[in-house]
Design goal:
single chain; 10 strands; disordered C terminus; binds zinc ion
Amino acid sequence: MAGPPATPAATQVPIRAGLTYQMALNSKQDWNVYMEEPAAQLDRFLIQHYRTQYYGSVCSICQVQRNDVKGHLISQNHWKKLWAKLEDTHIPSPQDVVNWEKPWVEVINTALGDYLFNHITGEQKLRESSAPLMNASPVGKVPTSTARQKTVCALDVWVWQRHIEVSAQTLQNVLVEANNPAGASPPLPAPVVTCEVCACHTADMCEHLMSANHYSNLRIRMDYTVPNAKELNTGPWVQQAFKLAGYHGKALAVSFNHLTGQVSRTLPNQPQSQPKSYMATPPAIEHEC
Ligand SMILES: [Zn+2]
Ligand SMILES: [Zn+2]
């Protein structure tokens, strides 16, 4: 069965606050809710990496200058312009809407490379480098070495996958277990939960955590730095619970450290002195040489 190369992240259509992109496009109130978080994420990224020049640029949908990126993207005017643009083509299918080559994806040139923003789904990422790592940029057009390090390459993703693989599997198992509190038989299927790094929903956190898209977003969220060892277990990279898609705030009491991979069952209503740790094999001590 010949098909396109597997790109797990490419098929994920985010649901936020129980809203799909179709619902958001059809209601300006829902649009505001649906787009708020990704708009804020884009704003934060651009403030850090391109504020001055970016703020002089125009919205690719409205062709007007944006002085307040978040405010603009959730505004009624922007929503109307986006809607008007889509009238000809109608609301794209889930397969099409996540395609990074479509006209509703804005390409923003930043200090770290091309940053892609999907105006319908709110998904965003740095464009993945398609050039092999060993191919140095031609002399005369060399980006700074730090900028080059900041683009995701295949080797980075491969190393990330080796690091997170066991923890990702553990997390998925624990989520399924947490969704089956009474040991239901037959067990309930894997719950659709939120990845807080990407603000997206998935029923397979294992596959999602291993994806290049998640890794790319994690790097951006971490601003390409790592905390010192003392802070590793307590920062915002520790997701405290997994919100269930479509359940309006209901969440599974499982925490996950997106950097170290530590998985814990938590008891939200009772302070717990010793959460059971499901920490997977420490990443640096693998059985293979
Ligand atoms: Zn606009
Ligand atoms: Zn993610």
